[in-house]
Structures are given as structure tokens and as C-alpha cells.
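BUG: 3D viewer hangs when loading the predicted structure for this chain

Environment: internal workstation, default settings.
Expected: structure renders.
Actual: progress bar stalls at 90%.

Input used:
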Amino acid sequence: MNARRKNLLTAGAVLVTVIAPLAMLVVQAFADQWHAPAILPQAYGTRGLHAVLDDPNLAAGITNSFFVALAATAVALVLGWPVARLVSATRHRAFGVGLLVIPLLIPQAAIGTGLSTWFLRLHLAGSLTGLTAAHLVQVLPYVTVALLTGFTPQLAQNEEAADSLGATALERFGHVTLPAMVPTAALAAALGFIVSWSQYGTSLVVGSGTPMLPLTMVPYLRHDPQIAAVLTLFFIVPPALAGALALRGTRQADRDVDPEAFRAPSPAGAHRAPNGPGCNPFPPPNQDCHDRTRREAAITP
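C-alpha cells produced before the viewer hung:
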């Protein structure tokens, strides 16, 4: 068995492992009747889908989760960009990364409990603003560490080259920094959205009863598997779209920066050294490149 066939078999096994649970989830979502020991449902229907669409609390949970995830991700990108840039420029980069990941080592429920006291006094508990701030505590470290991978020494050299060629700060950002950071920023945004979208402990403690999709899913897991399956499908779609958009953004933005874009155009009528056969385009003062070209042309039969 050659290496290519082994790789195909491995990829197929991984694909089956991922697709099989999703396929069973789709079957469960449309199974109006499914009693043991039957392998397949006895009756199919859309009862679970109608229950999700008709329940205002479930619809509100999806809407709130989507809004909070977008807001937390956007704020994390704005705050994480300068922090990642600062950490990448320091010598103690590992120490900075260690400080960033400290919130990730603390359980979500503990962070939510600590924030709930302050949020109650600030009248933020149960509001979307408070939930966004609470999710930001978890989202910001992921987004910042992801952005940190994009600020490489090569990017710093390209920015220095743009400065030396006379580019302004805005031109350097638009033509060098931003194109190089788009793939990393897209992946960081997708990661931040997924982290916020899946927050359960923080939403439970800080939300104070505000409908959020992870909170509305849990009660149905035991009492109504069909509705839980439909909610799970709704839960999977936005992160999958975010990941697909991030991958598409990385492919479109994967291009090199052209330093010649910042070079001032040569004045009209400027003399250019000829590039004839055997000529040096930057000849010493005593060398006549034109005469040398004519001599070589005359000798050549």
C-alpha cells in the first residue's frame, strides 16, 4: 500500500468520524417518532423545527447569542490588535503570552461569579452589554494570541522597507500591514466568534435569565431530543460559516507585498543604462557600454 492510499484511507476515516454524528443529528432533528430498539425512526416530520421557530424564547436565544458573539469579537479585534503588536515587539514574548492566557485557566463559572457582583452594582447583569463584556473576558485572550502569530519579523521588515521608500503611515498600513494581517485577523475573528457563541457558564451566571442559545439547549437534551437536535444544528451553522469565511479570506489575501508600489516614479527623460549583450548596467566611468555592444555585434557572424 503506497503512501497516497494510506493518506486517502486516513482522510476517509476522519471524514466518516466527523460526518457520522452530524448525519445522526439530522435524522434525530426530523424524527417525530423514534422508539427503541428501532434503528431508524418510525415517523419523520418537522415538529422540532416548528417548535424552535414558534418559541419566542428560542428565537430570542439565537438572536442574542449571535449579537453578543459579533460584538465581543469586534471589540476583541480592536483591543487585541495593539496588544498583540506590543507583545510581538518585546523580547519577553513568552511572558506576554503567559499573561494573556491566564483567564483561560480559570473556569467560566468562577469568572462569571466574580463579574456578577460588579455587574449587579453597575446594572449590567442580564443586559446584552453585560453579556458582551463578560464574553470579552474569554474571547480577548484567544483573539490576541491568534493575532500575535501574524506580527512576524518579516512583516516588520516589510514595514521598514515601506518607510524607507517614502510611504506614509496610512499607506504602510493599507499596502503592507493590512494585506499581510488579513488571513490572521480572519482566523482570529472566526475563533473569537466560536468562543463567544459557545459560552455557557458565563452566560448562565451573568445573563440573569436572558435567553441565550447554549442555555436554551440544555433543558431539551433530556426532555425532548428532537428539539435539542434542531437547536444543535442551529448552533453549528454560524461557527461553520465563520470558519468557511475565514478560510476564504486567507486564500484571497495570500499575496506578497510589492515594495515597488512606494517607489517614486523616475523623472521623464531620465537616462537609462542600456542592457546590451555583455553590458554592465552600472559601468565604471571609463567603460563605454555602447561601444562594447557594437564591437561584439560586429564580431558575431
